[in-house]
Amino acid sequence: MVDIAIMGHGVVGSGVAEVVLKNADLIEARAKNGVNIKYILDLREFPGLSYSEKFTKDFNVILNDPEVRVVAEVMGGLHPAYEFTKALLEAGKSVVTSNKELVAEKGSELLKIAEEKNVNYLFEASVGGGIPVLRPIVQCLAANDIFEVQGILNGTTNYIMTQMVTKGVSFEEALAEAQRLGYAEKDPTADIEGHDACRKICILAALAFGKHVNPNIIHTEGITKITSADTQYADFAGCVIKLIGRAKRTEDGKCFVTVYPAMVSRKHQLAQVDDVFNAVLVRGDAVGDVMFYGRGAGKLPTASAVVADIVDCVKHLDARKYLSWEHVEDDFLTDYREATVKMCVRVKANECRESVKAEAEKLFGEILVLGRNGEPQDEIAFITPYAAEKSLLSQLEKLPGTVISTLRILD
Ligand code: HSE
User: What are phi and psi of 232, to 5 degrees?
Assistant: First the structure.
């Protein structure tokens, strides 16, 4: 029997306890060892549970108990999760986590400590909730040169965008419904501003390219500025709008990483991923395109991934697993504005839309003019041909009108 501890008894932590207790026999058979929850760390009281006696408020009880070999950190946030995780790894305990913020920020440091101490730091649940994606990238796709990862990495924003596209509701209405259904947090900033998706694409990029990607310097746009007009123009163009995390290697061996809402052709693999589902599309030189799809959030889907990591740690108590990436300075990343894109541009004309169209054709060559119900006389929306984003944006300044919005088209 191997003793474990769970730090945090929120949505994910309570799910981890539930799955470990409910599937104890299965887990024992697969881990080749029983798994005993010895402690649960939480400052709150949880009377009346079948395992209420396991709660402690003192982290040192877990840290100083040599019988605890594996700890699930499901507290979330950077502090004190970082200090606790570091201390546990240094004490020779393996740690598993769903904490994307901590992995994205401090992953290289924590992985290095795990390596030095010959223990494991596993975080399958940090990206895509219950979707197996990190292990497949590192193990099953190990033969590939992975040159691109694209994903719908946040369930809350995908639910909001799906509602806006399919029901024509406003962003505010869709967000209120997401909160009512319990998908979005009371303070949904990290979801709707793209920070959560940013942390996840940084982890994916680090594993795919083997180098740390600092989430604090990634160009991140959320979905708060998307309007019904945008979704209607997208529909006209045969597209939906999705919040996309993307990491792509460039020809000079660098890489750009971005998070922004993009128009996605209905023929693209990611276009059909709706509601709170997540999907990750990985492009490798040998395998081609591979897509991972499933529930990216929620109590039991996330617990599924955390408990699988616990099983892995228990099976490999004295062996190191495969996860690691090199710590590098930020110059590994290149300016995303150098990337070639097509853009949907919505313009309020100074005088008439025909003059904007004529000027746009002069600047860009062939453009595709879009339409929508109730389009104002002085508005025009069009799709540009491919060009470097930087040059597209500077050309747009020359139009005889005010650019209301721009949306990139995902390729
Ligand atoms: N708030 C996140 C989401 C949860 O909506 O996807 C998982 O990170």
Answer: -70, -40
Cα of 367 from ligand 1 centre, angstroms: 37
Phi-psi region of 197 (alpha: psi -120 to 50; beta: other; left: phi over 0): alpha
pLDDT recorded at residue 181: 83
Residue 407 Cα distances to 110, 144, 262, 379, 381, angstroms: 37, 31, 6, 16, 11
Say how far apart CA 402 and CA 20 lie, in whole Å: 57
In what order do the strands lie in the sheet containing 94-97? 55-56, 35-41, 2-7, 68-73, 94-97, 121-122
| Cβ neighbours of 41 (radius 10 Å) | 24
User: Whose structure tokens read 């509602």?
Assistant: 163
Q: What is the chain's mean pLDDT, rounded?
A: 95
Integer Cα distance of 286 and 390 in angstroms: 32
The residue whose C-alpha atom lies closest to atom 4 belonging to ligand 1 is 297
Q: Which residue has the tokens 């970082």?
A: 82
Nearest CA to ligand 1 atom 8: 297
Catalytic residue among 54, 200, 242, 248: 200
Residue 200 falls in the annotated catalytic set: yes
Backbone CA torsion sign across 105, 111, 117, 122: positive
Question: pLDDT digits over 174-193, tens only?
Answer: 999 988 887 777 779 999 99
Residues of the chain with pLDDT under 70: none
129 alpha carbon to ligand 1 midpoint, in Å?
Answer: 8
What are the φ/ψ torsions at residue 275 (nearest 5 degrees)? 55, -140
Smallest Cα–Cα separation from 279: which of 185, 378, 369, 201? Answer: 201
What is the predicted pLDDT for the residue at 251?
83
**pTM reported for the whole predicted model:** 0.96
| CB count in 10 Å sphere of residue 217 | 11
pLDDT for res 253 = 80
* The pLDDT of residue 381: 98
φ/ψ of 64, rounded to 5, equals: -95, 5
